[in-house]
Each structure stands twice: as C-alpha cells, then as structure tokens.
Design goal:
Helix content: 25-40%
Strand order of the largest sheet: 8-7-16-17-18-15-19
CATH superfamily of the largest domain: FAD/NAD(P)-binding domain
Number of domains: 3
Strand content: 15-25%
Shape: globular
Bound molecules: flavin-adenine dinucleotide
Length: 428
C-alpha cells in the first residue's frame, strides 16, 4: 500500500486526504494546530456557552467540488440549501429589499429576480440586466487589465447600482473591494454563479458549527480508511534528493516511510519549510482581513436567516436566534482597531440598519482573521503555481494554488482533489 503524507488539515488537506484514502492510499495528515479546519473551524465560546465559527462561511450551489466532497464524507445533511437564491438586502431604518429568484425556469428565474429588486430604480435594474447580457460577449483577456471598478464604469453601472449590488457581491465573493479586485476573476465567478444552472446561485449554509459540519466527518472518513491524523505537529523541513522528497522533519519526528507528499499549507508556511520549490516568478500574495462580531441578544426580533446591508460598514448579519454573527469583509482598514472600538462601530450600525439598540445586547466577541483570503487582483493572474512541482512525488494544494477560482473553500477543495488525482495518475 502506497503512503502519502498530507501537510495541513484545512479544506485542501482534508480533500486530498479523503480522496487519497478513497483510492486506497495510507494517509498520514500532519497538522500544526490542535484542530482541523485551518481558516474554517468552530469552537465553544465558554462565556456564552455557544459553538461559534471563526467566521461565517457561505457556500453556493455552484460549489460543485465542495458539495461532492461533503457527499463523499457523508456530510451533505449538515448543510442547509436554499431552494432558490434569496438575499434580503437592508437599507437604513430596516427597509428590506429582497433579491429573489422566481420559481420559474432558469434563467428567467434570475431575470425576474433582478427586475423585482426594488433597492434599485427600474432603469437601474434594466442597466444591471444589460450588464449580465453583455458579459458573455467580452473577448477573453480584455478584462485582465481592468479592476471591477473600471469594468463597472465602462458598462455604466453608476454609483447606486454599485452600492446596492456590486459592492456587496464583490466583498462577499472575493473579500475585497471593487477597486482592488480583478475584473477577469470577478467575471469568472459571476459566470459560475449566474450562468451554470438553476441551483448555482442558491446559498448554502452550514447547519452547525464548522467543525461539526465537516471536520469531524472528514476525520472519521480518513480514520475509517486506515489513515492517521497527527495534531499539534508542525512540518518544519522537507529534505529533497535529486527529483524527490525523501524526508519530512516535523516538530516531533523524522518521516521517511512515504511515497508521496501533498503540501496543503498556506504559501507563507510552504516557503519556510521548502524553499527549494520553484514557484512562478513574482508570486507574491497580499491578503484581506475579515472581522467577525458575534453578538448575543436578550431577545431577537430578526426573522430572516441572514441579511446583506447596503451602504454599511457591516456587510452581512447572520441570524442564529439569540446569537447574531456580523461579518465585515475587506477589513484591512479596520483590523487594527481595538475590539471595543469595533464593537462600538458595529452596535451603531445594528441600531441604524435593523433597529437593535445597544441595550438589547448582552455580550459580544470580536474575531479578527488578518490573512483571511488572498486578494484576487490582476497581478496574481498567471502567477499561481500548478499542483505539480519539479519534485515528482511532491504536490501542492491550498486555495492559493492555480484553480481558476478566488480564495475560497471551493478553490481549496478543488486543489486538494487535483493533487490527489495527479498522485493516482502517477502510480502505475
Ligand atoms: C473569516 C473567514 C471567512 C471566510 N468566508 C468564506 C466563505 O464564506 N466562503 C468561502 O468559500 N471561503 C471563505 N473563506 C476562505 C476559506 O476559509 C479558505 O479559502 C479555505 O478555508 C482555505 O483552506 P486551505 O486548506 O487552503 O488553507 P487553510 O485553511 O489555511 O489550511 C492550512 C492548514 O495548514 C496548517 N499548517 C500551517 N503551517 C503548518 C505546518 N508547518 N505544518 C503543519 N500544518 C501547518 C494550518 O494550521 C491549517 O490548518 C473565509 C475565510 C475566513 C478566514
């Protein structure tokens, strides 16, 4: 039986480990922290006796690799699927504007949804629709020099349309703002969401904390297939000889009894332990932060599962009954504020947008993820590495590896599966 070491237990490492286990490999997964999940995990907040996520994660119907992965580990039931896209957008004073796909055939369902999106005036909705109609006719490559902002300007998407639609969508999908995001990467993701079938635009939410939603099921799957998971063990150095990795030094031991290695580490961690790996010239990732503010209320009057806020510092509110999760994407400018300052700011927005006053707030917790995602600017196009390296038994995975997708769960899962497939293909 061939043995594969998988370094890193985020979505990418787990995906690799699951697909390699499925194919009959012996897997040993080495994870530096005491838990699985990497940037997507949950834990118990002792003060409030609640399982909370390090940050709310949204999946979409178009996350095909992720949904296959959930199916494989028998965890699809841990997800809540919208029947069709519905997002309740909110302007100040709790004015709610649903953006809702209609229960008719695709793509008429989305067209009618946009035509009825009353946060925009009718002529603005028509402009938005015309943008979507025209998008498919852009010559390939013409967008890779534009930012999303440039593109929207070119297509007459004026300020109100940007604020009530594009800015929220860009922050949600790419965790960056329209001036930094690549129009090419945004166009690719819009096509995935809006042009690949009826279910693609629907939102999928974890039913439980992230660890319960997928980490435990993946762990169970790997173990049931004879694999091992080592926690609190850091990969520290990879020794290469000629065209192969021959030894992995960890904080606990030296490992030589492997046939293959998948690095599912973030770029900055890989560069430290394996500087020999040849990466594309000029590869340099910059990162966007996400702030998550958990709020506990005495009583919750919100009715919908989540809301998107128009023209607010807070992008999303997720409703878990007496506990709310507020998300601020693209938060590099706010991340150095103190937790108290962040809470004050968010409490003011809650009052202004959904009429929840500070008196109704029992407790709060702020989580800062500074390097939440890399920024999908035009600079990175063509600079992400493939899964294959110059070493024939050493492969790369991680959301930052070339997948054609931005820094998302789908990219991580896809990269992990690709690395596993390359290993399978290289075995006689
Ligand atoms: C707050 C937040 C919200 C997000 N929201 C969304 C969302 O709504 N939708 C979406 O699709 N994506 C979202 N993302 C992005 C998504 O979480 C990531 O793209 C994905 O989790 C990345 O997975 P990964 O396996 O590539 O990397 P990671 O999750 O970073 O995993 C890398 C793993 O390697 C381990 N490691 C590091 N160094 C070593 C070492 N030397 N030895 C051993 N192990 C090591 C780490 O501990 C970690 O477990 C969000 C991210 C954050 C932070």
């Amino acid at each position: 039986m061939k043995k594969c070491l998988v370094l890193g237990g985020g979505f990418a490492g787990l995906s690799s480990a699951v697909y390699l286990s499925k194919a009959g490999f012996k897997v040993e997964l080495i994870e530096a922290s005491p838990k699985l999940g990497g940037r997507a995990y949950s834990f118990t907040d002792q003060d409030n006796n609640t399982i909370i996520d390090n940050g709310q994660h949204i999946l979409m119907g178009c996350y095909r690799e992720t949904l296959d992965f959930f199916r494989e580990i028998n965890a699809l039931d841990n997800l809540d699927f919208q029947k069709r896209l519905q997002v309740n957008f909110v302007k100040e004073n709790f004015r709610v504007f649903p953006l809702k796909a209609f229960p008719v055939f695709y793509p008429l369902n989305l067209i009618l949804g946009i035509l009825n999106y009353k946060a925009l005036k009718l002529y603005e909705r028509l402009k938005l629709l015309s943008f979507f109609f025209k998008m498919n006719f852009h010559p390939a490559g013409s967008l890779s020099e534009l930012s999303v902002y440039d593109w929207l300007e070119k297509e007459n998407q004026d300020e109100n349309i940007r604020k009530a639609f594009w800015e929220i969508l860009c922050a949600g999908a790419l965790n960056t703002n329209i001036r930094k995001a690549s129009a090419k990467i945004f166009a690719d993701i819009l096509k995935q969401i809006f042009f690949t079938g009826r279910k693609s635009a629907a939102i999928v939410l974890p039913k439980y904390g992230l660890t319960e939603t997928y980490c435990l099921a993946a762990q169970k799957y790997i173990k049931a297939n004879g694999g091992e998971i080592k926690f609190t063990e850091k990969a520290e150095e990879i020794i290469f000889d000629k065209d192969k990795a021959v030894k992995v030094l960890t904080s606990k031991k030296e490992i030589e009894d492997f046939d293959f290695v998948v690095s599912a580490l973030p770029l900055f961690a890989l560069e430290k332990i394996a500087p020999e790996i040849k990466l594309p010239d000029g590869l340099r990732l910059t990162y966007s932060s996400i702030l998550t503010i958990h709020i506990w209320l005495n009583e919750n009057k919100l009715e919908k599962a989540f809301y998107g806020l128009i023209n607010s510092k807070v992008h999303w509110i997720f409703n878990h009954s007496s506990h709310l999760t507020l998300v601020i994407s693209d938060a590099n400018d706010l991340v150095e504020l103190s937790k108290e300052e962040i809470f004050e700011m968010v409490a003011a927005e809650l009052e202004k947008f959904v009429n929840i006053s500070s008196k109704e707030i029992k407790n709060y917790r702020v989580i800062k993820e500074k390097r939440a995602t890399f920024i999908p600017s035009n600079y990175i196009i063509g600079r992400r590495p493939e899964a294959k390296t110059q070493f024939r038994n050493f492969f790369l995975a991680g959301d930052w590896v070339e997948t054609g997708l931005p820094s998302t769960i789908e990219s991580a899962v896809k990269s992990g599966k690709t690395a596993a497939q390359l290993i399978l293909n290289s075995c006689p």
